[in-house]
Amino acid sequence: MPEIWVKPERMPRHVAIIMDGNGRWAKKRGLPRALGHRAGVEAMRAIIRESSDLGVEVLSLYAFSTENWKRSTEEVGVLMGLLLEFCGREVENLYRNNVRIRILGDVERMPEPQRTALKNAMERTASRTGLQLNFAINYGGRDELRRAAQKLCEQALSGALRAEEVTEETLRQALDTAGQPDVDLVIRTSGEERMSNFLPFQTAYAELQFPKILWPDFGINEYHAALDDFAARDRRFGGRSEK
Q1: Does the active-site annotation cover 20?
Q2: Which residues, 6 or more positions from 56, have their beta carbon under 8 angstroms from its beta carbon?
Q3: Distance set, CA 68 to CA 139, 197, 215 (Å)
Q4: DSSP symbol at 12
């Protein structure tokens, strides 16, 4: 285990992962896409456990975007079924391991069974103080900013907020990630090098990594390597390097 990445001061506080490549993983093996998504859930479960064990404060996982509704009815059905299965099997385990679940995205527009399961997961783990686990579900970054602007407009119309009081911090507190630190590290598997509308405000100064490995094959060793790479980077946040 490389020493550099286990030093607490060099660990990212907030890791965000775009879990890409489930379909291609299945296709390479001549398997149905559904089995690729199921393998992706197993990879996700391992990364959640490791993040908790390593002391990562926040882990954000891009699970289902607002654009994913355009996929085939069959594939969307598989994803919705896996979501219910995960909630049924894992919420109690996460609770026992002091993990708090938060949903990023428009939960109210989810189908009723999934909406209820997600709300129950958040309520059940609300008291947990360890890893904050964000699932981006029915999430789009532009939609999040729209909803945040809507909240601020409602506050202004009620007289609770004046125009000159709208700051970066008031906007930050209107986002789905209110109260959490900005993203330090973004990992997108499968080799695609784009953000796909994921946390545009929160990732402004994030370090980006695009490993070519497909998500179901992204294991603990690959995660450690990503954290090791992050720890070695010189983060300047727009300033000059001190090296």
Answers
A1: yes
A2: 11, 12, 13, 14, 15, 131
A3: 9, 12, 17
A4: -
Q: How far is CA 197 from the centre of its chain?
A: 12
Q: How is residue 132 written in tokens? A: 């904050």
Collect all residues with Cβ–Cβ distance below 8 Å to 73 and sequence separation of at least 6: none
Q: Give catalytic status of residue 68 as yes or no.
A: yes
**Hunting for tokens 């727009």 — which residue is that?**
238
Tokens 């085939």 sit on residue: 72
Among 53, 68, 138, 217, the active-site one is: 68
Written as tens digits, the pLDDT of the chain (243 aa) is 444 455 777 899 999 999 999 999 999 999 999 999 999 999 999 999 999 999 999 999 999 999 999 999 999 999 999 999 999 999 999 999 999 999 999 999 999 999 999 999 999 999 999 999 999 999 999 999 999 999 999 999 999 999 999 999 999 999 999 999 999 999 999 999 999 999 999 999 999 999 999 999 999 999 999 999 999 988 877 666 555
- Distances in Å between the alpha carbon of 116 and those of 37, 96, 123, 157, 231? 22, 21, 11, 31, 39
**3-state secondary structure (DSSP) of residue 23:** helix
